[in-house]
Amino acid sequence: MNKEDKQEILFRKQRCQQHLATYLKELKAIFNVNSNEVTILNLEETDSIGEQSSGKINNNIASKKIIPFDDKENFLRFYIDNCSQLQPGNVYVFTDYSKDCGAAVFNSLKCLNPIFAFNAEHAGVISILSQDLANKLILDFYEENDKLFLEVEALGSLWGEVSVK
After folding, report:
1. I need a surface site. Which of 14, 95, 144, 146 has the fewest CB within 10 A?
2. CA distance 44 to 40
């Protein structure tokens, strides 16, 4: 790691100190976990996972669906159950704060709370990677014309095959 990379890591760690409590609060609002069940990777590991995953995931969106945000519970349960069956195991979670604080690790996609509130994550985007980095779910929730929506994109050889008709 060169001097510039080290300085960038230090700068990001400093920013994390400002946001860590909020980051943990958001993660607990989105996932059904206690504080002691949240593992945050260091920045070097987080960067490495991001780089590795870009080469493993076929970035063609295999499945994409937009629904009203209030209709998300059964929809997300379908994705959680099917993706977990296809590939059980740890998942890496990236939110807006992950760049400065590190990606979160949960022992299963089943930790995702399908009834999380619209304001649970301040930026409205959650990316979830499978442990082998070959599958990805992107949850993008937003407001348009005074209506709330959830867009789910599933990518990868396994999760990309899961779709709701």
Report:
1. 146
2. 12
pLDDT averaged over the chain? 90
Distance, in Å, from the CA atom of 93 to the CA atom of 46, rounded to the nearest integer, reads 10
pLDDT of 165 above 60: no
> Helix, strand, or coil here: 151?
strand
**pLDDT tens digits for range 98-155:** 999 999 999 999 999 999 999 999 999 999 999 999 999 999 999 999 999 999 999 9
Distance, in Å, from the CA atom of 40 to the CA atom of 159, rounded to the nearest integer, reads 24
15-49 residues labelled b (16+ CB within 10 A) or e (exposed) = ebeeebeebbebbbebbebeeeebebbebeebbeb
* Number of domains into which the chain is organized: 1
Domain that includes residue 115, residue range: 3-161
- What does the H/E/C string look like for 81-137? HHHHHHCCCCEEEECCCHHHHCCEEECCHHHECCCCCCCCCCCCEEEEEECCCCEEE
The whole-number pLDDT of residue 7 equals 87
